[in-house]
Every structure is written in C-alpha cells, then in structure tokens.
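F.,

This is the one I mentioned.
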C-alpha cells in the first residue's frame, strides 16, 4: 500500500509541478494545455513558505510530497506563482485501485495531465468562490467549483479545508483525486 501511495503522490506532484511550471504569474486562468511543458528548472519563490514547504509540514500530504520528491519537481512547486493547488490527501490517493494507480504512474503523459488538473494559475481563496463557477486548470480542461452553506466541491471532490496559505499561492485540501475528462 505504501508503494501505491508513493506512486500516486509522485504522479500528483509531477502533474502539479508541471502545471505550476507552465503557469504565468498573472491571474488569467485561460492558459492552454499546449503551453504546458514539464520542467524541473523554474524560478524559485522568494520566501520560506512555498506550497512545497507547507505540504511537507503536513503529514496528510506525505504521499503527495513523496511523489514531488521522486519526480524531482520540488523546484517547480517552489516557483513564484501565484497558484491554487487542490491537494488530495493520503486518504484520497488510497481510494484509487492499486493497479489503476500503477498504470497512471507508468504513463508520464497521463500522470502529468492528472496532476496539472489539480492546479490553477492564479490564487483563488474561499472568499473568491461563487455559488457555481467553471475555471480552467493548468492542464487545460475546466473544473466546476460549487459553494453553498453545506460546503464547497470541485467536480465530485469535497473541499475539506480551505485557504492554507503559502507564499506562492494557496492550498485547498480535497478528499478525492481529480481526473481530467477523457480526450
């Protein structure tokens, strides 16, 4: 099970890192998927509390952090941003069938698409949410975010914790790994 967690985390980290590297620093969320390229060399944020730092300090993200390290994408997630990362917990990764997860991790292109589907190229805090809104991810596909008195969701994932600050953006915790629409 630990191997599966590491594999899933590596995939999410790779996707998130891929998405962050492709993001511009403006708040336009209309970046196209053709503009994204995986890279481990990016400008490092000028602070000590990046998305990577915050995730590394939270044991619920150990799978995600292991994946980022394994994929050599730490520098990407330390880039200036701003970014919004919908970060699946270890329990979210555990919901994925082991064989399916291993297949995703073995397919770098698919893994990158999945991870960048969790990243927005702007900072979106909970106070910015509308009752229903559709936004483009770094991967290029849209996600639907809904918010009401009972809570907030992104697609079918519950947003369980919001507005975890980082110097280069914000993290929202989700309970399910998001999968982009099939091409």
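My design for it:
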């Amino acid at each position: 099970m630990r191997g599966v967690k590491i594999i899933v985390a590596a995939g999410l980290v790779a996707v998130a890192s891929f998405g962050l590297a492709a993001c511009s620093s403006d708040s336009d969320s209309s970046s196209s998927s053709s503009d994204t390229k995986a890279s481990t060399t990016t400008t490092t944020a000028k602070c000590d509390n990046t998305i990577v730092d915050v995730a590394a300090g939270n044991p619920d993200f150990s799978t995600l952090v292991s994946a980022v390290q394994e994929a050599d994408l730490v520098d990407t997630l330390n880039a200036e941003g701003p970014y919004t990362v919908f970060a699946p917990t270890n329990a979210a990764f555990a919901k994925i069938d082991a064989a399916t997860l291993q297949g995703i991790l073995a397919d770098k292109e698919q893994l990158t698409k999945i991870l960048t589907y969790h990243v927005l190229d702007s900072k979106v805090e909970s106070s910015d949410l509308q009752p229903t809104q559709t936004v483009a991810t770094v991967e290029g596909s849209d996600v639907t975010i809904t918010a009401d008195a009972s809570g907030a969701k992104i697609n079918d994932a519950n947003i369980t914790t919001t507005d975890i600050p980082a110097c280069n953006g914000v993290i929202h915790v989700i309970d399910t790994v998001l999968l982009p629409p099939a091409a």
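The helical segments are 2-22, 51-56, 62-70, 74-77, 90-94, 98-106, 108-116.

Talk soon.
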